[in-house]
């Protein structure tokens, strides 16, 4: 097996979405095989690019230029699946980037196991969404996509605790809040393929948030800092926006995110005025 950080780098350097996810699955399988023969396979050290390679399409545009379509319409459903596919492709890179950038740090080997597992699942999620788009006669790249999605990764490139706070514990937790509404929307349209894909995504994302919380708490424990105020300070510094209720209290609890972590960061006045 190649060093794990080298495998992570190869995924980050692959531009095409389907090729990226195929390599991601292959590397995840190689890591699991190596882990079953060897307690601690080589992790190595990489210098990942600030931005991963991406396909020529979709065009990446400012969020206000991503076309909005009526949520209940067929075009609206395609736009939503396209947006989810884009999120999943970013998530593949985000998880391999954690390994490439921070894998060499002195951490229990379970840190690598968790993020390889998450990256492997994100690769499945991207392919599921591409399959749904293709079943509707569209494809990933057919519409413009949100350009800002890698910003959180760039801003937290030097700080693992900030990366864990912002990516799994804020962004992926937000996925837990909004996915049930999306599933309902596709269920009302009898889009059974998309419902099944989103249910898989929803079930597996809980663990990604949980990995974030687990390793955030581990690092706080090792640095002897109080997790809750540390989380609040990092999110305020790196996320730049209040968190949007309503929150999925139940799934957030399953993922090890208690309410006193997220409510103090919520956009209360605006939410109440809606
Ligand atoms: Fe995902
Ligand atoms: Fe995820």
Summarize the structure.
The protein has 274 residues and is mainly α. It is built from eleven helices and two strands.
Task: Give an overview of the whole structure.
- This protein is mainly α.
- The chain is 65% helix and 1% strand.
- It has a two-stranded parallel ribbon with strand order 1-2.
- Helix 1 packs antiparallel against helix 2, helix 1 runs antiparallel to helix 3 and helix 3 packs antiparallel against helix 6.
- The longest helix is centred in the last third of the chain and has 32 residues.
- The termini are far apart.
- The protein binds fe (ii) ion (2 copies).
Backbone shape = globular
Total DSSP E strands:
2
**What fraction strand?**
under 5%
End-to-end separation in angstroms reads 54 Å
Please give the count of helices: 11
Q: What Rg is obtained from the alpha carbons, in whole angstroms?
A: 18 Å
- Low-confidence spans: none
SSE class: mainly alpha
Q: Which hetero compounds are present in the coordinates? A: fe (ii) ion
Mean pLDDT over all positions: 95
Strand arrangement, largest sheet? 1-2
State the helicity in percent bands.
55-70%
Largest sheet: 2 strands, parallel
SSE order and pairing:
Layout: H1 4-12, H2 17-37, E1 60-61, H3 74-102, H4 110-135, E2 145-146, H5 151-155, H6 160-188, H7 192-223, H8 227-238, H9 249-254, H10 259-262, H11 268-273
Parallel strand pairs: 1-2
The site of one fe (ii) ion has 6 residues, from helix 4 and helix 7.
